[in-house]
């Protein structure tokens, strides 16, 4: 199935506007945040206009409607991931989800499968976003555990050659990205998950760059926890998803305490509600959750397989066209296998920030810098890159404009 990008773009009101003195908006920064279709904007607005009340609190009609909409969105997320609804926890974003897990491990009682101490190791990778590195780095410091990591090969692939020395019977946690936000590399996690489970470790997957762009089924994947952010999947900001196996969620200690997450409270003690409510203290971000539900339904209607194939074709085209420009170096895999719609590159003689500003003057939005993955860019010897990240509303004309813009920048900067 070929995507009708012209039709899709009509669903996104932001593409009706112009920028930089009347120029067409060419948005190639969806890896940072995606644009929102009208149905998402409407869903969030309608909640505030017609149903605004605190979900799970109150017996009046508005509270009932708010609760029904909130829980219907949970069902939508569960269906999108191939999960059960009681396994879906709503957070503010993937960053909060990952911190939730790290702090919950800190709170685990001795003897629990989550208890972690100086005798244990935590394994991540060198290609992690800061959000899936720093929480584990800091948990290692608090607990005395040792942090280890998979390296990255020169061509931007995960180096699994030393998996047996990294994941051992001392390993408690393996936290890994499914797709790099810098390299576009899609990691086949099957071997890592199998190895981690063989030693009793818990596997946590950062799926921020994968879930919005390809079909991800948590049962097939086989991890223990998975998280993504709504704003990267056409949804609102301020909402994220933590999926976890139900038995693990119920064993895991809470992260935040307050209303709605309790079973019973006295002046000296409290007991917790079952998952997922145990992790949703306070009045939830209801309108954003409803908006996320609308976003995932929109993606399902377009078709995740169709979106993935569309991005694969665009990525292949962009790699080919950029490769024709003298002085360009692609940071990440050059082959098309297991590669998502993210292309980072450098241009000889032009700093990425200067290139980004020049492209912006043409109406082309890209990301520049280390992309919240400082250890990775340092390891690759490229502390900053220009990154184009693609989505369902991009087409060949967007990529042609980017390529032409890079060529113009080379002339402008005398390269």
Automatic annotation (TrEMBL):
Record domain Aminotransferase class V: where: 26-402
EC code(s) of this entry: 2.8.1.7
Cofactor dependence: pyridoxal 5'-phosphate
Keyword Lyase: yes
Domain of life per record: Bacteria
Database matches in Pfam families: Aminotran_5
Catalytic activity: (sulfur carrier)-H + L-cysteine = (sulfur carrier)-SH + L-alanine
Molecular-function annotations in GO: cysteine desulfurase activity; lyase activity; pyridoxal phosphate binding
GO BP terms, alphabetized: cysteine metabolic process
Keywords in alphabetical order: Lyase, Pyridoxal phosphate, Transferase
Protein family membership: Belongs to the class-V pyridoxal-phosphate-dependent aminotransferase family. Csd subfamily.
Protein name in the entry: cysteine desulfurase
């Amino acid at each position: 199935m070929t995507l009708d990008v012209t039709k899709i773009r009509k669903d996104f009101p932001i593409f009706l506007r112009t920028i930089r003195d009347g120029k067409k908006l060419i948005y190639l920064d969806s890896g940072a945040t995606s644009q929102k279709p009208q149905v998402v904007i409407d869903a969030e607005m309608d909640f505030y206009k017609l149903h605004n009340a605190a979900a799970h609190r109150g017996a009046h009609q508005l509270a009932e409607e708010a609760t029904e909409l909130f829980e219907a969105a949970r069902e939508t997320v569960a269906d999108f991931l191939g999960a059960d609804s009681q396994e879906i926890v709503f957070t503010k974003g993937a960053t909060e989800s990952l911190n939730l897990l790290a702090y919950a491990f800190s709170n685990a009682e001795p003897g629990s499968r989550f208890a972690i101490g100086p005798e244990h190791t935590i394994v991540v990778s060198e290609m992690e976003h800061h959000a899936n590195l720093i929480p584990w780095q800091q948990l290692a410091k608090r607990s005395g555990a040792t942090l280890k990591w998979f390296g990255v090969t020169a061509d931007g692939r995960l180096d699994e050659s030393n998996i047996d020395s990294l994941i051992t019977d001392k390993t408690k946690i393996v936290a890994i990205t499914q797709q790099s936000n810098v390299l576009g590399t899609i990691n086949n996690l099957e071997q890592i998950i199998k190895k981690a489970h063989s030693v009793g470790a818990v596997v946590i997957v950062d799926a921020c760059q994968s879930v919005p762009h390809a079909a991800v089924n948590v049962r097939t994947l086989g991890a223990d926890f998975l998280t993504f952010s709504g704003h990267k999947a056409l949804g609102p900001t301020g909402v994220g998803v933590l999926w976890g196996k139900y038995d693990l969620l119920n064993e895991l200690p809470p992260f935040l305490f307050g209303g709605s997450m309790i079973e019973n409270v006295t002046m000296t003690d409290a007991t917790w509600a079952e998952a997922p409510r145990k992790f949703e203290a306070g009045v939830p971000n209801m309108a954003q959750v409803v908006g996320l539900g609308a976003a995932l339904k929109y993606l399902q209607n377009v078709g995740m397989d169709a979106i993935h194939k569309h991005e694969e074709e665009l990525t292949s085209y962009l790699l080919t066209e950029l490769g024709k420009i003298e002085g360009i170096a692609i940071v990440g895999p050059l082959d098309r296998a297991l590669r998502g719609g993210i292309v980072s590159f450098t241009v000889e003689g032009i700093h990425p920030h200067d290139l980004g500003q020049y492209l912006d003057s043409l109406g082309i939005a890209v990301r520049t810098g280390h992309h919240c993955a400082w250890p990775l860019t340092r390891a690759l010897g490229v502390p900053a890159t220009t990154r184009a990240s693609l989505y369902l509303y991009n087409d060949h004309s967007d990529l042609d404009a980017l390529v032409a813009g890079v060529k113009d920048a080379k002339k402008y900067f005398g390269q």
